[in-house]
Design a protein that fits this description.
The protein is mainly beta. Helices cover 9% and strands 21% of the residues.
Length: 57
Amino acid sequence: MAYVIGDDCVSCGTCEPECPVEAISQGPDKYVIDPEKCTECGACAEVCPVECIKPGA
């Protein structure tokens, strides 16, 4: 399953440049991950300062 960004996201933007497939973009309220592009590498989760990026269910 693709990673998802939880509601704890503070929109810091740290995750976006880490994504090797450009699956992360700024949404209306927080950053979002396109599940069609996500390769489940976990690079975004490793750099998230609030640990709000988790594997999807």
